[in-house]
Description:
Elements: H1 8-15, E1 35-36, E2 39-45, E3 50-55, E4 60-65, E5 70-75, E6 80-85, E7 91-96, E8 101-106, E9 112-117, E10 127-130, E11 133-139, E12 146-151, E13 168-169, E14 184-186, E15 194-200, E16 208-214, E17 221-225, E18 238-241, E19 246-249, E20 253-258, E21 261-267, E22 273-276, E23 282-286, E24 289-293, E25 302-305, E26 308-313, E27 319-326, E28 329-336, E29 344-348, E30 359-366, E31 376-382, E32 390-396, E33 402-407, E34 413-421, E35 430-438, E36 445-447, E37 453-454, E38 458-466, E39 474-481, E40 489-495, E41 501-508, E42 512-518, E43 527-535, E44 539-544, E45 548-552, E46 555-561, E47 567-572, E48 579-588, E49 591-601, E50 607-611, E51 620-628, E52 641-642, E53 646-651
Parallel strand pairs: 37-43, 46-53
Antiparallel strand pairs: 1-28, 2-3, 3-4, 4-5, 6-7, 7-8, 8-9, 10-11, 11-12, 12-13, 14-15, 15-16, 16-17, 18-19, 19-20, 20-21, 22-23, 23-24, 24-25, 26-27, 27-28, 29-30, 30-33, 31-32, 31-34, 34-35, 36-38, 38-41, 39-40, 39-42, 42-43, 44-47, 45-46, 47-50, 48-49, 48-51, 51-52, 51-53
Signal peptide: 1-25
Region (Disordered): 146-184
InterPro entries: Ig-like_fold, WD40/YVTN_repeat-like_dom_sf
Amino acid sequence: xxxxxxxxxxxxxxxxxxxxxxxxxxxxxxxxxxxxxxxxxxxxxxxxxxxxxxxxxxxxxxxxxxxxxxxxxxxxxxxxxxxxxxxxxxxxxxxxxxxxxxxxxxxxxxxxxxxxxxxxxxxxxxxxxxxxxxxxxxxxxxxxxxxxxxxxxxxxxxxxxxxxxxxxxxxxxxxxxxxxxxxxxxxxxxxxxxxxxxxxxxxxxxxxxxxxxxxxxxxxxxxxxxxxxxxxxxxxxxxxxxxxxxxxxxxxxxxxxxxxxxxxxxxxxxxxxxxxxxxxxxxxxxxxxxxxxxxxxxxxxxxxxxxxxxxxxxxxxxxxxxxxxxxxxxxxxxxxxxxxxxxxxxxxxxxxxxxxxxxxxxxxxxxxxxxxxxxxxxxxxxxxxxxxxxxxxxxxxxxxxxxxxxxxxxxxxxxxxxxxxxxxxxxxxxxxxxxxxxxxxxxxxxxxxxxxxxxxxxxxxxxxxxxxxxxxxxxxxxxxxxxxxxxxxxxxxxxxxxxxxxxxxxxxxxxxxxxxxxxxxxxxxxxxxxxxxxxxxxxxxxxxxxxxxxxxxxxxxxxxxxxxxxxxxxxxxxxxxxxxxxxxxxxxxxxxxxxxxxxxxxxxxxxxxxxxxxxxxxxxxxxxxxxxxxxxxxxxxxxxxxxxxxxxxxxx
Length: 652
């Protein structure tokens, strides 16, 4: 009743008499979960609720609980290949093809109880327990054909073979198999004393062996032997079928036996290997899946995903234990609820919808096992207004499995419709969902005074106006001064007034981005509005070293002796690295003419003192001013600002 697994590499090693095979696992195994590099048999003790797994990579047997957690292990079984449990579950038999022996292990302690040598060059390979003995296959060194041997646990392991009481007996296959290598074996607790054996010759695939033997007596007797009357698939697995005189080959083909021969009795969809539960359920390995069939049915009642090397039923048929491929090797997993069918459920909804307009949602519930009439689905809608989900009226599935319902989404954003079937005595629960994008309403949001230029330090009030929304009436106003050294700052947050307005004041010391932010609500989209306001610098220039101030015409001048150097001191709002530009003009011919411009760095106190060289000539009129130039004065955080002209007159 078990599936035996052997990798291609292991099979080749056996056929070519390689006694030691090392397989390196793809990665380190978990310390807690049973993981093997190359599976070498799997059996289940239903009484102790333990799973025994052979690990060819490390020449060991692992004992795990029903959750796949390692309980214990025993090493030193060279070239371990297969496992079998005695009928009383107290002894575990392991074939050791490397050391050519059968190893008997105490299932309670994993202590080795006995080692039984087998005189062969290839094997022992597969092992089963029936009729009070451990039966194993091996290759007869005389003719290279597969044969059958047995271990009698009641005999003394140290007995002399010449005395006829040795525990190991070889050459017990009643007929010459004609097939090279060791054959597969299987037993069935409901048919005590029967042993199924099957194989295909690796070198000549036209040669097959398929037989059922009665091993309840002193020597095996043929119950049925395939006489070649019809062809077989390549035999790589054989199982006795409980409750009926049949064998299952490769998890696919059923063969009935009676009157000493076989007849084809049907097939399951193509598989590779299988194990059969005491109640007749088939667990079939097929590609990347494990499928569970009821006896004689063509559609699986349950399918599990995962590349599986070997599997075995729990004796109560409550679960299947499978060695599933993973990056770290083959991991022992429990496949539960094997008799519960997994339905397929779809939900179809439009990808987008208009808020406040009804939409239609459709779908289908189907299963490989018929669903009960009038099955009902629980439906929920999840959106911004119901983030935990809101129950909608239940939907009844039609006879063809289809269903439909309508709903009117009110909230904007992503709306998720979920349909769920609660399951029944024959089906697992299942759910599915679909998402609908519902656009929010777009509100109006404005912010005044964009582009205004203001004197340094002016308090400027900015007003945001918010149009109609669903519930949220809160607006934030932020001020982000130019330059990376000042943070974006929240000026105000609050509800707009009855006119939709909210205002905040900015102290204009720099050019500033002022932003109004509405964060939206369940039905209204977020919006932002931005105004950029500009601030001039604060600049003044003091003139010194003059001997008087007096007007020439209507213009006030600072009067200097012709050989006195004027001292021009500029004070400007300071930013690190800032420079002021000094413009100088001279009056001649009734016009002002540029005499040049030059930048001077401000001190940390915002001051810059410049001495202007005296002309040495009287009657000269000049003027100067200090200028901040955005981008050229060392930064770009203020708007270009021109200071007032200062007029100079040179006399004797």
